[in-house]
Amino acid sequence: MTRIRFNQQEIVFAVFALLFLVFSIFLNGFLTADNMLTLLQNVAVLGILGLAMAIVVIGRGIDISLIAALAVPPGLVLQMVQNGHSLPASLLTAVILTIAFGLVNGWLIAYAEVPSLFATLATGLLLAGLGQAALFQLDVVQWSSGMDGFERLGQGTILGIPTSIVMFAIACVVVAFLLRQTRWGAYIYAIGDNPYAARVTGIPSRPIIVLQYVVAALIGCFAGLVMAASVNSMPTRVFNSTLIYDVILVVVLGGIGLSGGRGGVLNVVIGTLLIGTMLNGMTIMDISYAGQNLIKGVVLLLAVITDSFLNPRNEETAQQGDI
Amino acid sequence: MKHFGSPTKAIVATLALAAMTAPALAQQGLDEPFQKPFKEALAGKTVAYVPVAMNFDLTEGWYAGLKKELEPFGVKFVIRDANWNTNAGAQAVTSLISEKPAVMVVHNPDVQTYAKLLQRAENEGIYVIQINMGSAYRSSAFVGANWVEIGERQTEGVVKACEGKSNKIAIIQGALSAAASAYTLKGVENVLAKHPEIKVVSSQAADWDAAKAKAITQTVLKQNPDLCGIVGFWDGMDIGTAAAVKEAGLTGKVFVTTSGGGERKGACELVKSGAFDLDMSYDVPTQAAQMAGTIKWLLSSGAKPGSIKGSEYTTLIPITKENADSQTTCWNLSDLKK
């Protein structure tokens, strides 16, 4: 007798579909095109960050410093423009800073062999501290007139679709292409699946891992620019928020196991949709902050518990080295 | 001799005598008896400052203002940045209690966490001054905004703007446990109790976070495009609220009120641009000056810490389009730091 097996991705999708259905029936104004766009718009930045995290997690790492990459280089752009530098020069400086940051992360993890959790925990603090101490005058870096026009990256619409959703879609396509169509992407899966086997077969593991963190940092910086453009300022203290947990949640919930080698862009999209639907529905229902946290916790726990019932762990999966 | 009899001559002679003796009198000035003990009471004393975080207009403004007023008197000014971390802040206060500064200036993240610690500090002989966000413990002085009044005046503004419109409003709260948020909400409720026609369609916490405020406002505006007003709880967060209103093309139609320290970029510029219709400013430089005054008074009074307790609620400045252009309505952080 064959048992029907669901994986976590399908379970999360089912939870999302169920929630969506319930909200559509019982919640006035939920199932409108406008609200659907708002729902997506609200989680677009989270989704873009999820993509960056996915790349690293598939390669069996984790990048806790992602929020620093989101906050500091884009904050630097706004600060430099405020201080009278041109927008292109500021953007270039920020990109160079981001790449340098990714290289440091990658080097620490691939060559110095520091576990990714600790390496990025430290470098994230370092970058955020550098920003606070040396780069920004204030935590919230205000938009200035030199940035005019750039806000279109996060505000307004393209063909009726809010720009931030378009940016998320573009990021999805680029990351899907990188992961599925390039040799680099295939190597990441191989390294994530079994780093030792990957190295034995001649894959240049270390440079690939470095590249992984550089790309993640660049995507993080891109998410930050979209966010800054969207709220017309860069609240750099977002580094101290719980955003990084939400990002990890999107990735893990979507079904990209922390053991690496599995999952892709679709998983991030599904994870993002579930979070987005919950947040949107609860905002419409005007549920209190504490109530929202409670519901979020319960739904997430249910998804994870269901998964462990349907896919019990065995010797082999337990060996995979979950965090 | 005859000449001396003339009154004119007599006056001239007296004046000449006075002119000769006057410098001698001035050289024996009167010593003011109180300034010496005042200077002694301040010199070499340590004032410790524990803000919820540095690097934003309020805390930087208080810091600059206090430094300017106290350092010339030889006061040592130390800072313990809690950096948005309540635990780090509580630790800072705890370690300060053992270091025994003369005065502690504390910015509470919520009404409970520091309350017991502040009481202990005063028992240990440290004056405690609480700024803007008070705790449940009443210390030597509270200097700050009257949040209930802020909530009331903001809501009155919104209620007025809503006349003849949908009467639907939204409330964007800060962090639920913070005094600033909870007391402002009380003010909002006070006014709403008198206006049953007003319907609150959404009242949620955005945790002082602009991105969260934007997300909430977007959703609310999609559900209620006829919304007539929003009561926001801090201008640093309500940049996001305003961005959502602007994106929905409702600037000018939805009345946005908020409150803040009145820094030019964060307050006046945004009111001028139409992002905020009313920003209740508690004017940080004035608060800093009042705090500095209180510190000078406490140190020179010799009063036992904890034996006297008072409050100084700062006068609110409502910033609207009418006064946002004025040089005196807002302040520049860069100028205050000079």
TrEMBL record, chain A:
It is found in: Cell membrane. The lineage of its organism: Bacteria, Pseudomonadati, Pseudomonadota, Alphaproteobacteria, Hyphomicrobiales. One of its GO terms (cellular component) is plasma membrane. The chain crosses the membrane at residues 12-33, 39-57, 64-81, 87-110, 117-138, 158-179, 208-232, 238-258, 265-284. It comes from the Bacteria. Keywords: Cell inner membrane, Cell membrane, Membrane, Transmembrane, Transmembrane helix, Transport. One of its GO terms (molecular function) is transmembrane transporter activity. It is a multi-pass membrane protein. This is ABC transporter permease. Pfam families: BPD_transp_2 (PF02653).
TrEMBL record, chain B:
Keywords: Signal. GO terms for molecular function: carbohydrate binding. Its main location: other. It is found in: Cell envelope. Residues 48-296 form the Periplasmic binding protein domain. Residues 1-26 form the signal peptide. GO terms for cellular component: cell envelope. It holds the Pfam family Peripla_BP_4. Belongs to the bacterial solute-binding protein 2 family. This is Sugar ABC transporter substrate-binding protein. It comes from Bradyrhizobium sp. LLZ17.
